[in-house]
Amino acid sequence: MLSNSLRFIFVFFSRQSIYPSARFEAVYDSDTPRVFACVVASTFVAMALVFLIYDIFVQRRNDKIIEQAARSNAIVSSFFPKIIRDRLIGEHADVKGATNLKAFMANKHGSKSELGVTKFDSKPLADIFLETTVIFADIVGFTAWSSVREPTQVFTLLETVYAAFDEIAKQRGVFKVETVGDCYVAVTGLPEARKDHPLAMVRFARDIMNKFQVLTNQLEVELGPDTGGLGLRIGIHSGAVTAGVLRGERARFQLFGDTMNTTARIETTGTSNRIHLSQESADLVIKAGKGHWLLKREEMVQAKGKGNL
Q1: What is the chain's Cα-based Rg?
Q2: Closest residue by Cα to residue 215 from 205, 230, 233
Q3: Which of 99, 140, 194, 301 is the S-S candidate for 272 at Cβ 3.0 to 4.6 Å?
Q4: What's the CATH fold of domain 126-308?
Q5: Looking at the whole model, is its pTM more than 0.70?
Q6: pLDDT above 70: percentage of residues in the chain
Q7: Rounded CA gap, 178 and 246, in Å?
Q8: Domain map of the chain by residue range?
């Protein structure tokens, strides 16, 4: 009997909706939950905006760093062959970004002795390459031509010609060393050895000779008369060279040795619009089965410091 009564009471109240009185509701009615929710939501939105702005800032900074690194890499690539660049970065870069490499290049870690001679804290980066072929290509008539031209015209010519030579060098696997005035210096056989270094250089010389004649004829309209009359005198010599990074304020990859001097003599004793080879280079071309490419010069030439060649 009692259990049935309790079950009736439970069922009765479970089916009823209980509402608080207006007075009771007024006591506990508050905007605190809504305010708290608004504060939490505002805080969340503010933090999201902060992180978004920070992410944008970091992304822009990273883009600038990557862009600067790309520019630096392009500059380094233009100065040094890939194998030398990789050795420089591998041996002298640190996790902070190549500060040691910069110090190595500028010799900022060096010191001076009591006699004022600079002492290097690290060994130079240099190698000897026994089988190479070097080219000197000089513009004949450039001094007289440039003396009656505006500076912008002079650089228009040099930039146009050298850019074309650089493109051909890439196609032929020739490494450009430098330009000295109006003389273009390049080499094959380094930084990576190749057995066909003399043939590759001869082909490169033929290509730039033909390209030079085309470009000067085209530029005559823009740069005035006599531009098409400019010539290219090329000297080629094969032999060993010492190559490496010559450190200092303007560090660059440089070649040294008797081969460089002999190439310069071969070039200066050549004639305009002809490719002049030393006997050493000619012998290598003949050995490679391309002797029909050559025409032996009838007269001997007097090379400074070398005698008759």
Answers
A1: 38
A2: 230
A3: 140
A4: Alpha-Beta Plaits (3.30.70)
A5: no
A6: 72
A7: 13
A8: 23-78, 82-119, 126-308
